[in-house]
């Protein structure tokens, strides 16, 4: 008797595509590849998240991009398999700057400086070199300064599924940011 | 403080007070006009001062000497001009209330303190070492420095590309440079043309002279001036140089030769 397989559903196809590509994939590209509607894709993502968890995998969402990665809880096993973990040390200044970018993105260097009260050029350069932040646009103000945002690598490095997993922005920071941007 | 509030009462003679005015948007006595201006009922910036004064002067008796009345009108004119000038001046920016100024520093300190909780959250996540790895275990990272060109293109490819580019940019016809005359040749040429009656430096060189010929020609001219064979005059700055051959010296040189 032949073993009949049920045709793969959208979640399985999505998982296969994300696994094969390995890198962050834009939703628009996924919609084209899978020939489905945005609502169907959203539903497939939810299903894939549940199934992936059983396999020690995660679906992270960086803006409009999706990526299949290993579960952060299994980082030790993965790092052992890979032959040692990555150095994740960041200076307090870089960490503080990264927190501002993560919470207030898109944010300009001047706004970061105003929040920290000190010059953040070096810290920003460190984060850019580490690939944790990236230029995401330009502010509509005199000089059109570059705005920074976090990258998919930021989510991977901090074991976050999406930016929504960050605790809510403290009201004091939001208030000061409004004052700075006024 | 508004311009209207700046307007103070004007002491008018009873006669001037009752002068009737017909202005755009106002009809009444001068006293009423000034009262409304003082209370802000009419816009001082829109007040036609010349029309007010013209109508006041029209009421002044022409056939008798009335210096006090004219002095009143003059004082009124000065006051109206002062009010209108104040009304037209740009208003200074509204100063930030003291409460707002006092709010800024505590707000920044509160933001800095609150930001610490965000930083601590990230630091804890980092310390937990719970990183997610993509397939293959290679975390995508931006290069710290731009990729050197030699790693992108082989040197031989660059040489081929430059050769092709140079071949494309080669002019269709070889460039022919006009030979530059020597200083001695130029001196002779200038003297010949001067004897023919040519009188300006540009005419001596001709319309087709190249930049190099101009340079050599100017050096030749300086040489002729130094030797006292020619004298030059320039009537205006950057104007043409009028060259005059000293006939006496030229004749002597011709005889010597």
Describe this structure in words.
The complex is a heterodimer of chains A (182) and B (257). Chain A is an alpha+beta fold and 182 residues long. Chain A has helices spanning 10-21, 27-34, 38-54, 75-82, 92-104, 109-116, 121-130, 152-157, 171-181; strands at residues 25-26, 57-62, 65-70, 107-108, 133-138, 146-150. Chain A folds into two domains: 10-75, Winged helix-like DNA-binding domain superfamily/Winged helix DNA-binding domain (Arc Repressor Mutant, subunit A), CATH 1.10.10; 92-180, Arc Repressor Mutant, subunit A (Orthogonal Bundle), CATH 1.10.10.10. Chain A contains nine helices and six strands; from the N terminus they run αβααββααβααββαα. In chain A, the strands form two sheets. A three-stranded antiparallel sheet of chain A has the order 1-3-2. A three-stranded antiparallel sheet of chain A has the order 4-6-5. The longest helix of chain A has 17 residues, at 38-54. Chain B is mainly α and 257 residues long. Chain B is built from twelve helices and four strands. In chain B, a hairpin with a 2-residue loop joins strand 1 (20-23) and strand 2. Chains A and B meet through strand 3, helix 4, helix 5, helix 6 and helix 7 of A and helix 6 of B.
